[in-house]
């Protein structure tokens, strides 16, 4: 049995009603899985709040204190700016330290479930805030739950951790935290930084010192479609696994590579979100005794994409096939009144809005050349 970490505390991480980061995605996903009768109360586990000591596994103590003060509006603008707080992307909000600590603690709950052998797989889809740095907030991310989780598993379980990031944005905060570390491998496939925040993740970012070759980046071109994405992903992440031989996999599952995402420029469909978690599960079964922890991440089409994409993670963990046909009528009836967008009726994209990309062959060729350039170091 797999475990699904969920707690009301995850829903309080909310910058404002207008901000694109909205944990309503988590509510929609959880309800969809329940309406499908594939998520039981026995499989759900309450998360917890991370302690200051756990946050300090990665984050500097002065930064943690700054977040606490900003949470109660007691940090001046200049000091906020020095810590990346109260920016347009990451504005302050009441009790943000507590809310962010719930995200981290829930990811740590999933780690303990897997590393203690309670179950082979666990997910905490409220996490995946991969842009946070040790002493600075960035890109909607206050604390970096994935980085804390990796260090936590290193120290508590002496684990070699493979981090797989399929968000459309480069996982910069996680990568640079472990850039000199040989017992953590960070992998990221993402839209090229030429067009998209954070602008990092070039193919030649491979780690430094003892960590050289323990970071793999595959920047793919804007308007990349399913076939090219999946081909590049599967070949490169397979090579990463074979090279590193992890004890456990932690995957970050942004849902923003979809063509309907409002913040990115990739052109994939729901197909990639069916295949990515199932391939990661195969890798976990092959290389690390099935140990796999999954977190969420980006994904800013809250109603039409994120719930369908994230549901596939849980289904893959349980070994269930990708569903076809109609979405549960009860789910559609409950949530359609909550949005002006037309909810999808089926598990596969209704492609009236999908536009063929004239440069498909050129983009795919560029991605293939990038893949070959990356993999030459892992032959």
Automatic annotation (TrEMBL):
Example GO BP: acetoin catabolic process
Regions annotated as coiled coil:
none
Report the InterPro entries cross-referenced here: AcuC, HDACs, His_deacetylse_dom, His_deacetylse_dom_sf, Ureohydrolase_dom_sf
Query: Which SUPFAM superfamilies does this one have?
Result: Arginase/deacetylase (SSF52768)
Give UniProt keywords alphabetically: Acetoin catabolism
MF-aspect GO terms: histone deacetylase activity
Question: What Pfam families does the record tag this protein with?
Answer: Hist_deacetyl
Could you tell me which Gene3D superfamilies the record lists for this protein?
Histone deacetylase domain (3.40.800.20)
Lineage: superkingdom: Bacteria
What pathway does the UniProt record associate with this protein?
Ketone degradation; acetoin degradation
Q: Does the keyword Metal-binding apply?
A: no
Q: Which residues form the Histone deacetylase domain?
A: 19-314
Q: Which family does it belong to?
A: Belongs to the histone deacetylase family.
Function field: Role in growth on acetoin or butanediol. Involved in the breakdown of these compounds used as a carbon source.
Protein name, per record: Acetoin utilization protein AcuC
Query: Which organism is this entry from?
Result: Macrococcus bovicus
């Amino acid at each position: 049995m797999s475990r699904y970490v969920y707690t009301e505390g995850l829903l309080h991480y909310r910058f404002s009603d207008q901000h694109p980061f909205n944990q309503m995605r988590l509510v929609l996903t959880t309800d969809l899985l329940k309406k499908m009768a594939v998520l039981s109360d026995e499989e759900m586990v309450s998360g917890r709040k991370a302690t200051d000591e756990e946050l300090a596994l990665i984050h500097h103590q002065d930064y943690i204190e700054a977040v606490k003060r900003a949470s109660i509006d007691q940090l001046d603008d200049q000091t906020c700016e020095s810590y990346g707080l109260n920016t347009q992307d990451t504005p302050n909000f009441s009790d943000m330290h507590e809310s962010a600590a719930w995200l981290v603690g829930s990811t740590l709950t999933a780690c303990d479930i897997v590393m203690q052998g309670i179950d082979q797989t666990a997910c905490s889809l409220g996490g995946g805030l991969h842009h946070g740095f040790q002493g600075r907030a960035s890109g909607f991310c206050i604390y970096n739950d994935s980085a804390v989780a990796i260090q936590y598993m290193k120290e508590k379980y002496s684990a070699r951790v493979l981090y797989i990031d399929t968000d459309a944005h480069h996982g910069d905060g996680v990568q640079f935290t472990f850039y000199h570390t040989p017992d953590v491998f960070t992998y990221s496939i993402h839209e090229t930084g030429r067009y998209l925040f954070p602008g990092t993740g070039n193919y030649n970012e491979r780690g430094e010192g003892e960590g050289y070759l323990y970071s793999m980046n595959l920047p793919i071109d804007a308007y990349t479609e399913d076939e090219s994405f999946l081909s590049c992903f599967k070949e490169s992440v397979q090579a990463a696994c074979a090279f590193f031989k992890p004890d456990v996999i932690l995957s970050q599952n942004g849902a923003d590579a979809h063509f309907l995402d409002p913040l990115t420029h990739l052109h994939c469909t729901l197909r990639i979100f069916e295949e990515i978690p199932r391939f990661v599960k195969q890798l976990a079964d092959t290389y690390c005794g099935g140990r796999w922890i999954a977190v969420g991440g980006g994904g800013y089409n809250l109603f039409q994409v994120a719930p369908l994409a994230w549901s596939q993670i849980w289904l893959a963990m349980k070994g269930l096939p990708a569903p076809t046909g109609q979405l549960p009528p009860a789910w559609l009836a409950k949530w359609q009144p909550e949005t002006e967008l037309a909810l999808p009726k089926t598990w596969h994209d209704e492609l009236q809005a999908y536009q063929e990309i004239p440069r498909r062959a050129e983009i795919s060729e560029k991605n293939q050349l990038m893949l070959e350039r990356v993999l030459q170091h892992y032959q």
